[in-house]
Design goal:
The protein is α/β, with parallel strands linked by helices. It has two domains: about 160 residues, 3-Layer(aba) Sandwich (Rossmann fold); about 110 residues, Rossmann fold (3-Layer(aba) Sandwich). The chain contains ten helices and eight strands. The structure holds zinc ion. Zinc ion (ZN) binds next to loops.
C-alpha cells in the first residue's frame, strides 16, 4: 500500500517536472529565436523581395492590398493597427508610399525598424514631357517629388533592393542571418539570370521606342537600351476625344513601334485607340498588383520581356 502510493507520488512529480521544463523551454526559445518578429511590407514588389529573403522563417504582411493602386493609396485604421504591432517595416521608398510617414508617426511605434529598399539607388527624374498630364486630370498625375519610384522593374536595381532588404532584416533579426543570406543569394542569382535573359533577347531591338500610359518603365528602358519616349497618362474611365488626340500626337511625334498599356486598363477602349492609330498595343505589367508569391516577380517579368520583343520587332 505504502509502496504503491510512493510510486504514484514520484510519477506525479515527474509529470510536473516535465511540464515545467517544457514551458521554460518554450519561453526561452521564443526569446532567443525572435520568431515573433513581425515584418510588414508596403507594396507588392517589396513584399515579394522580403518574402524571398525571409523564406520559411516567418510571415510577411502586406500593407497595400494586391489590386489597389499604390500611387493613390489611402491608409486604413487596420493599417495603423498593423504598423503599431510591427517590428520591421519594409518600404519601396523614393516617395512612392505617400501615405506612410503620417501613418507611422500616428502609431507612435518607437521600436519600429524601417527598411528603405531603394537606399543608395540613384533615381531617374520623372517624365516631365509635354504629353505628361499636368494640365488635366490631376487625380492621375502620379508625379513623385523624390524621382521615379519604379526601380523594381529593372532586374539589376531589383538586386540592390533585395540586398538592402536582406541587410536591414539581418540588422533587425541577427538570429536569422544565415537563413536570410542563403535565401537572398538564391533570389539574387535568379535576378541575375533574368537580367541576362533580358540583355540577350532585347539586344536586337536597341533604341526601340514605345509610348506608355504610366511612367513606370524608365529604369527598364534605360537598362536595355529601349526608349520610353512619352508617357500619356489617361483617366481609368471616361477617356475623352482630347485624350485620344494626345495619344495620336505622341505617336506621330515620336514614331513609336507600339503602345504599351497597363494590365487592368480599360481594354476595349485602348484596343479601339490602337486600331484608330494603326499601331499594335500590348500589355506591360508594372507589377503593382498580382500574386503574393516571391516567384510571381519572375513570371511577370518574363511576360514583360515577351511583350517587349513583340512590340519592338
Ligand atoms: Zn506606378
Amino acid at each position: 500500500m505504502f509502496r504503491k502510493f510512493q510510486w504514484i507520488g514520484s510519477s506525479l512529480l515527474a509529470v510536473v517536472a516535465l511540464i515545467t521544463t517544457a514551458s521554460l523551454g518554450n519561453i526561452s526559445s521564443i526569446a532567443q529565436n525572435r520568431d515573433g518578429t513581425k515584418i510588414v511590407a508596403t507594396i507588392l514588389p517589396v513584399y515579394m523581395f522580403t518574402k524571398g529573403v525571409t523564406g520559411e522563417t516567418g510571415e510577411v504582411e502586406i500593407l497595400v492590398p494586391a489590386g489597389t493602386d499604390p500611387h493613390e493609396y489611402q491608409a486604413t485604421p487596420e493599417n495603423a493597427r498593423t504598423i503599431a504591432e510591427a517590428d520591421v517595416l519594409v518600404k519601396n521608398g523614393l516617395g512612392l508610399e505617400e501615405f506612410l510617414e503620417k501613418l507611422v508617426d500616428a502609431t507612435g511605434n518607437s521600436q519600429l525598424q524601417e527598411i528603405d529598399a531603394s537606399q543608395n539607388i540613384k533615381p531617374i527624374e520623372e517624365d516631365k514631357d509635354e504629353h505628361h498630364d499636368h494640365d488635366h486630370d490631376h487625380d492621375h498625375d502620379h508625379s513623385h517629388e523624390e524621382g521615379n519610384p519604379h526601380v523594381w522593374l529593372d532586374p539589376v536595381l531589383a538586386q540592390q533592393q533585395v540586398k538592402n532588404i536582406r541587410d536591414g532584416l539581418i540588422k533587425a533579426n541577427p538570429n536569422n542571418a544565415t537563413t536570410y543570406q542563403t535565401n537572398a543569394n538564391i533570389y539574387l542569382q535568379k535576378l541575375q539570370q533574368l537580367d541576362q535573359e533580358f540583355q540577350t533577347r532585347l539586344a536586337p531591338f536597341k533604341g526601340c521606342k514605345f509610348i506608355a500610359f504610366h511612367d513606370a518603365y524608365p529604369y527598364l528602358a534605360k537598362r536595355y537600351n529601349l526608349q520610353q519616349t512619352a508617357v500619356v497618362e489617361l483617366p481609368q474611365d471616361n477617356i475623352t476625344p482630347r485624350d485620344i488626340q494626345r495619344v495620336i500626337n505622341a505617336t506621330k511625334e515620336y514614331q513609336v513601334k507600339g503602345l504599351l498599356a497597363e494590365i487592368g486598363f480599360n481594354d476595349s477602349r485602348m484596343q479601339q485607340i490602337a486600331k484608330d492609330i494603326g499601331l499594335p498595343i500590348k500589355k506591360l505589367d508594372p507589377i503593382e498588383s498580382g500574386l503574393l508569391d516571391p516567384e510571381h516577380y519572375f513570371t511577370a517579368m518574363k511576360n514583360n520581356l515577351k511583350t517587349l520583343e513583340e512590340i519592338c520587332q
